[in-house]
User: Fold this.
Amino acid sequence: MLEKINDWRLKFFLWVGLPVIAVMGLAFAAPDLAPAWQAKSGGGAAGTFTAVSEQCGRRSCSWHGDFVADEGGAPRKHVILYDAPDGLAQGGTAHARDTGARKGVFATAGGSTWLLVTGFTVAAALAAVGWVVLVVTTILRRRRHAAAIDRLAGTPVQR
Assistant:
């Protein structure tokens, strides 16, 4: 009985979980992979982030605010400051870099956002590859099984 439950859970994870992980990771993390690495290496437009509001979840808080580049240009309103420095308060400012991330800018002090985004993207890519391998091997296994049944039955194999 326990084997059937574990087998059912494994099959559910392989057929439903892997594609969900792949799609979510590739949709949400992959677009910010290059901007996160660019910020880690000091690229992007330098500027100032002004904290407007803080939103907290169960384990962490995020600062939202406005970013103005040092070299001018249009300010980015209502963005997240990734890797916000400790002690940032409402109305406070922090040096940041805009590397083109969809929802935010990166603090110049650095942090681990690049590692988190990279991890999610790699996990999503591995899930996608794993799911494709699963689908291909299942199709090939079923074809071999059907061909073996046809041989045993004495009927020609149609492909």
